[in-house]
Amino acid sequence: KLVGVTSDGPPIQDCTSPTPSGAGAGSATYSAPNGNTFQTEWSVPAEITPGATAFIRLQATPGPGQSLGAGITIKTPSEFGLAPLPNSLEASLSPGGSFNQSKTFTFTPQRAFTAGETLYIRLENGCTAFTYRYVVS
Fold first, then answer.
1. Are 31 and 37 in contact (CB under 8 A)?
2. What confidence score (pLDDT) does residue 80 get?
3. pLDDT at 64
4. First and final CA of the chain: distance in angstroms?
5. With the CA atoms of 4, 7, 88 and 97 taken in that order, what torsion angle do they form, in degrees rounded to the nearest 10?
6. Are 62 and 68 in contact (CB under 8 A)?
7. Which of left, alpha, beta for 116 (phi over 0: left; psi -120 to 50: alpha)?
8. What is the 3-state secondary structure (H, E, C) of the chain?
């Protein structure tokens, strides 16, 4: 089950990305003075078990006359297969462009887990990064 969430530190300038209080949904918003904006959303399971799912979404729009690069990545324990790959969404936008995509991942264990074993899910969202720590019960 999920036992804690930590952040790599404060978000970069122009970002709002509160540390999630636990499993479920989280989000980060970037809004720069030049009009560039992006929002990432995600969810992670309360427990890493067969069939558990995680979700990521990226919405991005460059400001007038601006270009914008944005992304969100989810990294899971190597013992799990992630499908479909890749495990990220990335946008590289020219002026006037926009991006809105999401992905859902289903965890399928590749081996048996031992009670007390620690597993991690890492979420990098362009503003900061979060590490979700799980202990197998």
1. yes
2. 67
3. 95
4. 7
5. 140
6. yes
7. left
8. CEEEEEECCCCCCCEECCCCCCCEEEEEEEECCCCCEEEEEEEECCCCCCCCEEEEEEEEECCCCCCEEEEEEEECCCCEECCCCCCEEEEEECCCCCEEEEEEEECEECCCCCCCCEEEEEEECCCCEEEEEEECC
Cβ atoms of 94 and 62 within 8 Å: the answer is yes
Residue showing tokens 């952040």:
7
User: Which tokens belong to 120?
Assistant: 């991690």
- C-alpha distances out from residue 81 to 78, 107, 134, Å: 7, 6, 17
Cα–Cα distance between 84 and 65 in angstroms, integer? 34
Taking the CA atoms of 25, 26, 30 and 31 in sequence, report the sign of the dihedral they define.
Answer: positive
User: What amino acid is encoded at 83 in this protein?
Assistant: A
> What amino acid is encoded at 7 in this protein?
S
75-130 pLDDT, tens per residue?
887 766 665 567 899 999 999 999 999 999 888 888 888 899 999 999 999 888 99
Residue type, 102: S
